[in-house]
Amino acid sequence: MPKLRFIRVLLHVFVGVLTCALIFPFVAAVKREALVKRWSLQLLTLCKVKVRLLDQSGGQIPDHALIIANHVSWLDIFVINSWQACHFVAKADIRTWPIAGWLSAQAGTIFLARGKQREVRRIYEGLVHQLRDNKRIAFFPEGTTGAQGGVLPFHANLFEAAIEAEVPVLPFALRYVDAQGQLHPAADFIGEMTFAESMKLILQSDVMTAELIQLPMIPTKGAHRREVAQVSRELVAKALGVSL
Questions:
Q1: Which of 51, 43, 44 is nearest to 14 (CA)?
Q2: In whole numbers, what is the pLDDT of the chain averaged over residues?
Q3: 2-240 is classed in which CATH architecture?
């Protein structure tokens, strides 16, 4: 029943707030990452979203890389976090969202304000240092969510951080399918749809499976950011069966 599931989601969010406020300040980073991973998986379960990790990387171990993926829904962050907890780069206005913005900040989200060059440069330098310190940084190079069945152009700017930090890019392709393996329409979070409308649609829908497809790592040594962005987009599109 959607109302009951919605109440359970709200309670789970409240548990997340308490965890961030009362536990995060007193535990090590490894423990925080484990808590984020578990909380994300539980949230997806409440939303009737199963996660299936598919490996098309040839068995490469993602030890030290900048993680990118196509962007379909607000669910994407939790799908990736259910695999490995990451520090995401997100638009600064998300920080102002009630509860969700605060939770994102506590989970290590890096907020990027467009148009403020000094702040952008400061955050960019921070990304380079974090990548060199072997932290998992992830972002969605499309810059916004797009309907399934297509892949929007990738913005190249943040790929420069991987080049400067001398780490590869680890791309993922992400899609949501129904029991028949067809793209699930309830996952799309596009246009003027609000977060509440998206949540309601997901909770009213049948079970969906989030397929997180790990692709081969892309070396960045001596590369240009636009080249790396284009190769990343082509790999993601190919994995999704999308023609660019």
A1: 43
A2: 89
A3: 3-Layer(aba) Sandwich (3.40)
Locate 70 and state its tokens: 């196509």
What residue spans define the domains of the chain?
2-240
For tokens 């403020």, name the residue. 116
What global pTM score does this model have?
Answer: 0.91
Instruction: Evaluate if residue 150 carries a pLDDT over 90.
Output: yes
**Contact call for residues 187 and 148 (beta carbons, < 8 A):** yes
Query: Do 178 and 198 contact (CB within 8 A), yes or no?
Result: no
Per-residue confidence (pLDDT) for residue 104, from 0 to 100: 77
Q: Which one-letter DSSP state was computed for residue 179?
A: T
Would the pLDDT of 115 be above 70? no
152 SS3 class = coil
H helix count then E strand count, the chain: 8, 7
Rounded Cα–Cα distance for residues 141 and 159 (Å): 9
Distances (CA, A) of 173 to 82, 144, 182, 209: 15, 15, 15, 14
